[in-house]
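Weekly puzzle thread! Below is a chain. First person to post its structure in token form gets bragging rights.
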Amino acid sequence: MFEGIITPIVTPFNRDDEETINIEAMHKLVDHLISHGISGIFPMGSNGEFHVLDSKEKMYFAKEVIKYVDKRVPVYIGTGACSTKEAVKLSKEAEKLGADALSVITPYFIKPSEDELVEYYTKIANSVNIPIILYNIPKNTGVNISKEVLKRLSKISNIQGIKDSSGDLNNLRDYIEVTKGTNVHVLVGSDSKILKGLSMGASGAIAGTSNLITDTLVELYKEYEQGNVKRAEQLQQDIEPLRAALKLGTVPSILKRSIELAKIADVGPARKPVSVTTSEVDKEIKQMLNHYGI
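Winning reply:
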């Protein structure tokens, strides 16, 4: 369940005053991703704008995604929060809704100590029976899960994965080393480091770019697994035009607009205060899409 390319899906919004969730667009996006071979669907990650959804919206969207995916691939629900109480509540609700696993980001804004991080994850893990993936993204949260913390948490039976979005290969290597012989899988969270991560022993990737260039990411994983390293290197490099375009706006505005302009699904803009893309930026996005033939 923790292998291959897992897509942290964007949350589609309608273009209305309330920026309501667009379930029909989610259906189109999910069908597109599954038909193109992704290994899992992950709602409410960073690209899913979990940080601008209230708890009611999160569980509504989780319920709709789980129901629509209908066991075609595993569904990983993001349930992390700043408070342990909120994270436990969301995790319990997601389990009841039928989530296959949970992705739990570290608390953000504050910088918890190692003992506090261990207690946070331990309490969440003990509150549910389904697998948990730790989510490490220090550039956004201000705290890095150390290898010592991971080693302590790897002893908990339902903590079975960690997504590393640090972009630091030494950090990733440490995770792979301390989880050897355990049931914890290491997943690459930095799209530019997927191939290097796989070659070091990571089992897969949670890749935001797979929302758009799904075939490139899925083929990258398959080619590596089949031993075609040169082809995998070419595919890894081919992610760069999209990564360059993503810098044209605030996350995830460019990715969402790209999905729309590619006619995959009408996922709408990012929630305010993130701005909609300009006509000039749209031109650059279209040039990037032309590179991929979409």
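Puzzle host: Confirmed. Bonus trivia for everyone else. The chain has a mean pLDDT of 97.
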